[in-house]
């Protein structure tokens, strides 16, 4: 059977398990020694007394010359008894050599015959400790000789009344002391175990919090022992878990962003291919058809390049497309984007008013196409506009592309949040309400990476103006 005790209980049980037997052992040894010492000292006293008695009786009997010793002893025994009992203040008995009582200092009492008598009349001092009527007595018998003959014996009946009381009191005091020391050590064990268990409990609470993902919790333990070291190690561990989890979160964030960028980037060539496939059937001239097919092929190749790049990045474990900046004519890029979205402009009867000039800028053509396409796509999808103004100009050594629609506009409070990922203005009337809210955020990132920027100005019911700023040459 497995007993599950807490550390606290184990410490208390261990201390009590050691202490209680020790205390019981000390208690029993001391009380036993005390008892036997009391008996021994009284026996010594009685032995000494018995020598005096022997001398006294010898002198007393030998005094009467010519009288038979034994007859004289029988005759004088009552007097001897009276003398001894008065002198010593004990109960005294005198027995003859056959073990029969001759005289007793206390009349009409039982004789209490015992083996001390048998031994004494054989010539040996002997004693018996006996409990009589609830009191303890030492029955000490000593032989009486005269001229090598044993006349009988004298017996001292010594009561241990006072000693018994003293021993009993000692038992009680020692019992109280033993109980007190067990109680004190139990309290001390409890305090000690609480001192040990307290920090462990603290450690447990914090580690439970860590398992729930609260990695910021730290433990402060100043016990100056191994538990303090453990708490320090635990804190270091929590810190590394926190760092690790944060790096994982960062990595996940990065991967999500990458996935968002990739899907958005795929949109440009796909929109282009769909756009041309809508135009081609409506074209009459073979040269226009051939030109459009070249564009379809180019966008198809671009799509393939993107997939290959994606595979390469995945092999290298990287999660960022590179920006490939080259000198490009911005006007040509805008025209290309306009061809792509032309079918949709026609479908929604949106007129494009262009004010373009040939400007060469250092940019990643495909990425800039993606930006312009998203801005125009937004205007078509959300603004309900009839005109889109596209103006390309140089201002303070910067190349600025303005794309202005005369649509519904965007509320002031929403404008600042448009560059946040996945933020969308809830516009139920919009043509296509299934965007992801990523476009403008990605556009901002693309422009920033090329030292440019993208800004929005908008007034409700007046329209939206998107300013795309390029780094000048
Ligand atoms: N010209 C505009 N007129 C009115 N609202 C606009 C205009 N341009 C953008 N918006 C609002 O800004 C929001 C964010 O546009 P954004 O291009 O970032 O995302 P999206 O077009 O919804 O999704 P995605 O581009 O990822 O497909 C749009 O959902 C739309 O509500
Ligand atoms: Mg968009």
UniProtKB/TrEMBL annotation:
Domain of life: Bacteria
HAMP domain ranges (all copies): 194-246
Keyword annotations of the record: Kinase, Membrane, Phosphoprotein, Transferase, Transmembrane, Transmembrane helix, Two-component regulatory system
Catalyzed reactions per annotation: ATP + protein L-histidine = ADP + protein N-phospho-L-histidine
UniProt keyword Transmembrane helix, yes or no: yes
Name of the protein: histidine kinase
Class of enzymatic activity (EC top level): transferase
UniProt source species: Clostridium taeniosporum
GO cellular component terms, A-Z: plasma membrane
Assigned EC number: 2.7.13.3
Domain (Histidine kinase): residue spans on this chain: 261-473
Pfam families from the UniProt entry: HAMP, HATPase_c, HisKA
Gene Ontology molecular-function annotations: phosphorelay sensor kinase activity
Cell compartments where the protein resides: Membrane
CDD domains documented for this protein: HAMP, HisKA
SUPFAM superfamilies assigned to the protein according to its UniProt record, in alphabetical order: ATPase domain of HSP90 chaperone/DNA topoisomerase II/histidine kinase (SSF55874), HAMP domain-like (SSF158472), Homodimeric domain of signal transducing histidine kinase (SSF47384)
Chain segments annotated as transmembrane: 12-30, 166-188
Membrane topology: Multi-pass membrane protein
